[in-house]
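Think of the structure tokens as a kind of shorthand, similar to the way a musician reads notation: each symbol stands for something richer, in this case the local conformation of the backbone. In the example below we present two proteins back to back. Begin with the first one, reading the sequence and then the tokens, and try to describe in your own words what changes along the chain.
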Amino acid sequence: MTREDDGARVTTRAGERASLLAREDVEHGVDADGAVASSNAGARKALVGALFGLALICLGASVNSRATALPSLGSAPKLTLPIYIMGDGKKGSEDATKIAKAYAWLSGLLKTQSGMSEHEIGRVINFQQATFPSRWPETHEVAVAATSRIDPDSLEKIAFVGGAAFDNPDDCGRACGSQLSHHTGCLLTHMAVWNRVIDSDDDTFVLWESDGATLNAVHPLDYPKLREHVPDDFDIVWLKPDDHSNGQLIKRFKSAAKGLWDPTMDSRLINGNDVYLYKFDKACNWAGTPSYMMSRKGAKKIMKFIKEAEFADMIDAWLSRHCITRCDDPKVCLNLNCYIAGNLKVPKGALGGYVPDWYDVEDDEDVREVDSRIVSMMDDTSKFNQLGCKHSKSYEGFVPTAWEGGYGITDNSVVCDCWHTPKDGTFDFCDAKLKYPVEAQKAQRGEATLGGTNEGGTRETIMGSYERGFRARMALLDWPLGSHQRQD
């Protein structure tokens, strides 16, 4: 058979596989017209074939030919940790092209580096059709699946999530309107994935939004090692590239994927020899959930909170805030255990906490780890900030704020949120005498430790900013604030 004949055969096969979207059900996926399909035994096979064919069409090359561009080492272990790619699978959509490209790259990688068959790849790569409230009843089945664990009588009470009680935008109301529809659909689609994981036997999974393949700081071949090295208490490991200080360094380990990144990615990721793992408990101004690793227990914890607290919000700011917020009220605080990992090393001058001598030294050690006793000591924000100030004058600091009665929480020894402009002069976070968490409301009244005033640069806390945004969103939804109204 000539090369031209082989190419024609591949193109024909691609068309046949792409047509599976129109002929067969796809597990929690879509047919060629974008309608949500039901799950059956042949669905996963159809999905793999369809995405394979769609990838050929979008990229103008076969997955096999794409894969041959990668070094054929075949030495990486087979990936068993599931990866969910969510987005709009509707034919012709921008998301569909992104998803196909992500699938082509990932499947080629697993074939060449892990020796995985198409069947094995199909068990690892999972597609989740996104729900779009503005298009309901189309894709509404996804919203129904997302809220299946919530009592129907309670569903309408929950902001954003409650829109799923209706199957068309008109009845759904403002949650499906132009200003909030994206946030409503995004949260519900993540919830649909969480429910799928809860119903599975998997204890850990990775989720990519449609652009997650390019906004992902840990190579998929390193996911098994990351799962091995992350502390057992983890709920979330953020995978989004970030070079800011978000918490104490825990360890670094050798990457198995140098030279195997997509060449269009950030060169700092492509050339990285190591994966760095940090705690994520001292982070402000975080937004975006393009990629993350989550434990099954973490998914169950979040879904339980939504059901029992009858509360949810925009997924990124909401979950990242619960990575630092602490309290004993299970209807106010999720108390998530969060980490962040990536080939993208945070510059030493930007780090708070303890930085070991080996941090900026490349060596052949497979794993370098900070003593767990030191990691525990860095839970003390004062110590964390003082060491950060010693590293560099450019250290930006982390200033946690107290509850001060907000949401009925009277324990001012636990963290409510954070001061989002720590270098504005309101608090001297390099001063060992500063006690945390700070009383943010006192600072806003012009009684800060450095004499800041409302006119002199004092900023509202993230809590204040979040609260104003939350109130505005609730007003758009015509939703009563209820138990989540701040009690000032």
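Once you have a description of the first chain, move to the second and do the same.
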Amino acid sequence: MKFFRFSTFNEFLGIGYVTVVFIQTLGTNMSIMPDVPGVLGSSLAWTAAIQDITSQFRLQCFLRMSFAVEFALKLLAPLYGMLLFVAMYWISKLCKRLTLDRDVVIGTYGSFFVAFFISIANLSLKLFQTYEHPNGERSMISEPAVITSSDTWLSMVAGTSLSICLYCVGATAGIVYALYNAPTFFKDPGFRKRWKFLFLSVRPSTYWWVTASLVKAFFLSLTTIVFQRPMGQTIWLGTGLMLYFLAVFWFLPWRTATLLWLDVALHYLLAVLCLLMPFFVPANETELIDAATVFLMVCVVGIMCAALCVLGVLRTQSPSALRQWRLTYEQDARKFVEVFQVMNDAQLMADVLHGLVDVDYTLTISVMKILSASRRDGYDRNEHPQIRCGTRIRHQVSMSAREGAFSDEVPELL
């Protein structure tokens, strides 16, 4: 069994992915502001180039066409990229020395698609991202001259709906299908090459993490569709970012500590920006009352969370819960014994540790230190009755076993 180390180049790719997602999220936050201060508009105008790539192409500058035609051509942007990769593949077929692997080409296109999925989701839903005029009419945020009740807007509904089905629903369904079948087909070299971009930067135990990024993209794109008032939009954005923030802490999805730190730091900064957004919009009396109501609701939710934690702790002390934990510990202990009987060669263990990602390696070393300390202290239950209920030690060992640090999928995913 051969183990591979996560390369520096792949780590740079992961850093680039997290950074691109951050810039797209930042651009989405700025796009919902009705009035952007001059200093922000001039300093962060470049974020639109990544958050909405098609905004950089003004087709009407060199071809006379209606807005509906231009909008339809922009909706095809992801397909243009796909055609470009297809053309590169077939051109390489003509040059035997430059022949490209079909699965690698598909995987490369997929990596770009996922990296810019926030931009693609915004493009697909742009027609429905509107704001209200004082007279009750609604206009597109990206094109204020287009009223939602106009023939121009209505003529674009069918094309937009098709793009939503293709880019958002269809692509997401394909990715979820690949993730669902990954444990079964990952030993197939073609499958690994084709879908490598889904697993490259994440830990084996969280190989499905790309779905969290897709959900976040939908969440951001729906902001101006679900809510029309700035306060509701800010709460929606803040809630989504905090849920993602907590999920990163809970699952620790990234392969390296650098990626983990970067993702947490950038989303913390985005959460701070959400807190500052209400200061850019003057609030009326109604909005102040609504804000006070939301403030009280948040306080109540906080108290309820504390109460639920108390109930959860009490539940873990019930006889049935303790009995279930005891059975779990015994099963995990048998698995540990089986693993240690096989992993009794220092070189083999070194190869395994060399193939682990940062987070799994740190956890494995922590478990080793715990076991070593227990062995050195004798671990006699009769002499040390307080160890009889050493929940913390056994819980950490149990969690390590569930992570599957020594599973066969680890080398395959690296």
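Compare your description with these statements about the second chain. The chain has a mean pLDDT of 79.
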